[in-house]
Write a structure and sequence with these properties.
Rossmann fold; 2 domains; alpha/beta; six-stranded parallel β-sheet
């Protein structure tokens, strides 16, 4: 799948400043080793961060990336400590457990290894930058959309990710704020899944058994939402339950086109992975980069996805349109 350049991804106050910060480094840059620590790579959005980083490294030719993926905070911390011991040039990470990873980031700081956080930062230590969407804003988009569909009396459940994951907490917070802005002030049910799709299936099924009047479910990310969708189908409830996710994975978009998923928020993880490599090279060279880089996100419902397939890109930022079109088309074609 082809992806557009990162022009539309990095939304800071001054686009020119950001483009300078993340611009491709000179071809003569010295070799650099990056330790990349991510959550489980079976998660499509996380896998795409890794893919984007490796694609950028291959383009440059002078970058070696060492990748570790785990949903264990302790294992992530251990991986970071290993990369410190190996004296990599830069560490890039997405914390699954802010407290567990914090001490390892302090060790990287002590070793004077620059650190870039993606999505979720550790609770301790200094990051040169944090690259992430505004997850609370994303959650508010989802909450407002669902409240708008259901009205003030809507009965809504939240299938959470992990309460130790900053990004997940921010999504949940934004979602409840968005619901409240639309007049829904109380969740029928809320339970974490630790980002485990099988647990999401069980949690969703239990919620529907206890509360068969549920009308809408927000399941933390699309991988979780797809398991919630299977639980809804298995529940025997002969009604449509609004289902929202986050990330706009290919499988999530495919489920949306089939009528299962109703809403998701599209982020751009491959571009984020590529940008992290460019910024790592700048840090290695001693250049200054922004302390926070906010990545764009786009809310998509089924009507929008169908409009994209019909060639109607109305309402989609022009710089994101080619990327959005490519991803919706890939979903239509079976995510090959």
């Amino acid at each position: 799948m082809k992806y557009v350049a990162r022009l539309g991804l990095l939304a800071t106050l001054l686009l020119a400043t950001l483009m300078t910060a993340a611009a491709p480094p000179a071809a003569a840059s010295p070799k650099i080793r990056i330790g990349l620590v991510l959550p489980d790579l079976s998660n499509e959005a996380i896998s795409n961060i890794n893919i984007g980083a490796h694609q950028r490294a291959k383009e440059l030719g002078n970058v070696e990336i060492l990748t570790t993926g785990s949903y264990s905070g302790a294992e992530q911390a251990s991986a970071i400590e290993d990369y410190v011991a190996e004296h990599v040039d830069v560490i890039v990470y997405d914390s699954i457990d802010a407290a567990a990873v914090g001490p390892a980031i302090l060790k990287a700081n002590a070793a004077k290894i620059p650190v870039i956080a993606i999505f979720s930062a550790a609770s301790e230590g200094k990051n040169a930058t944090l690259i992430a969407p505004d997850f609370e804003a994303d959650g508010r988009m989802i909450g407002r959309w669902m409240a708008g569909k259901l009205g003030k009396g809507g009965k809504v459940a939240l299938v959470e990710g992990n309460p130790t994951d900053t990004a997940g907490v921010e999504l949940d917070t934004g979602f409840t704020e968005g619901l409240a802005a639309g007049g829904i002030t109380k969740l029928v049910a809320s339970e974490p899944t630790d980002w485990d799709p099988q647990r999401a299936f069980t949690v969703t099924g239990d919620m529907l058994t206890a509360h068969p009047d549920i009308q809408g479910i927000y399941a933390a990310i699309d991988d979780i939402a797809l398991s919630s969708l299977q639980a809804i189908k298995a529940s025997g409830l002969e009604k449509h339950i609004l289902l929202a996710g986050h990330n706009a994975t290919c499988e999530g978009l495919a489920a949306m086109l089939r009528g299962g998923l109703d809403y998701t928020v599209m982020d751009f993880p491959r571009e984020i992975g590529a940008t992290s490599v460019d910024l790592a090279i700048k840090l290695k060279a001693g250049d200054q980069i922004p302390e926070v880089i906010k990545a764009q996100a786009l809310g998509i419902d089924r009507a929008t996805a169908q409009a994209v397939l019909a060639g109607n890109m109305s309402g989609i930022p022009p710089d994101l349109a080619p990327n959005v079109e490519a991803r919706v088309m890939a979903a239509k074609n079976g995510c090959k």
